[in-house]
Specification:
The strands form two sheets. Strands 5-4-2-7-8-11 form a six-stranded antiparallel β-sheet, with no helix packed on it. Strand 9 and strand 10 form a beta hairpin. The mean pLDDT is 80. With 157 residues, the protein is α+β, with helices and mostly antiparallel strands.
């Protein structure tokens, strides 16, 4: 009889404990997304040596109006050096930043995300994609007037 009583007592305590536990089920954490380039071993993958390239822009005041901020988007055959992927182009040939890329060969086209902004504007959401033809070898020439706007980010699905 005592065994039955103890069994019933423990069964009651366990069932009450599970009913009283109103702690919400924890939401599983969102997967972390790495923003680091996965392309840093291109030399080993392609058998080609990596070299540094510097981008030089040409533009007119009508191209940039009050100013435009460009962020280089990594793409084969190049990735941007971390401290040199933000470029501001402004009126009267003013600019800040230097585009330095590490590539397995000179690119013929590169992509940026862009937005209109003044020189010292904080980083904020950009407008969309910009594709620019590139000429030259280690000194890359980028004529901003030949860049083509791609879709805006809201149009990506």
């Amino acid at each position: 009889m005592i065994k039955n009583f103890l069994f019933c007592f423990f069964a009651l305590v366990l069932s009450l404990n599970s009913i009283a536990d109103d702690t919400p089920t924890p939401t599983p954490p969102a997967p972390r997304i790495s923003i680091f380039s996965t392309t840093t071993d291109w030399a080993a993958l392609t058998g080609l040596p990596l070299r540094q390239y510097v981008g030089n822009f040409t533009w007119t005041n009508s191209d940039v109006q009050r100013g435009i901020v460009l962020y280089y988007l990594d793409a084969f055959p190049c990735y941007g050096e971390a401290d040199s992927v933000r470029i501001w182009l402004g009126p009267n040939r003013q600019s800040t930043g230097i585009l330095r890329l590490v590539c397995v060969h000179a690119p013929t086209e590169i992509s940026f995300t862009w937005r209109y902004a003044t020189r010292d504007a904080d980083q904020a959401q950009s407008t969309g994609l910009l594709k620019c033809p590139v000429t030259g070898d280690y000194e890359l020439d980028i004529d901003f007037s030949k860049c083509v706007r791609g879709p805006e980010w809201k149009d990506f699905k």
